[in-house]
Amino acid sequence: MFKKNENIIEQLETILNALRRIPRRFAGIKTATDFSQSEEGIDKLDAICMILIAAGEAFKRLDQKTEGQLLIHYPQVDWKGVKGVRDVIAHGYFDVDSEQLFNLCRDDIPILIQTVQQMIIDITKLSDS
């Protein structure tokens, strides 16, 4: 798979802890327009975007560190999309599409969280063997 590295587990745990904050921030958002209808909605959008930027950057670094040999084992996630969201938000924050962000939080984040949890389990098993 790739060279075992304890630091990879630590990085995944850091990412996972951040990703787990997204459902809490997303709570109460029932439609995409909820992100723009109140100061609270805008604050939630800001917080979610910051996490997505940080996670996207972290996954880029992890992919480089593992020479592309980790993420490919988890095809249930669109890794190019995960890393690309970081660029879209970071370079076009004022153009963030609230509908896309809403769909991402509702549909993709739960799968991403589950996948990162599985990655930690799988890598931990490698260290135990």
Automatic annotation (TrEMBL):
Coiled coil: none annotated. Transmembrane segments: none annotated. The keyword GTP-binding does not apply. The keyword Hydrolase applies. GO terms for molecular function: hydrolase activity; nucleotide binding; RNA nuclease activity. GO terms for cellular component: toxin-antitoxin complex. Keywords: Hydrolase, Nuclease, Nucleotide-binding, Phosphoprotein, Toxin-antitoxin system. It comes from the Bacteria. InterPro entries: HepT-like (IPR008201), HepT_RNase_toxin (IPR051813). PANTHER family: RNASE MJ1380-RELATED (PTHR34139:SF1), UPF0331 PROTEIN MJ0127 (PTHR34139). This is Antitoxin. It comes from Thioflexithrix psekupsensis.
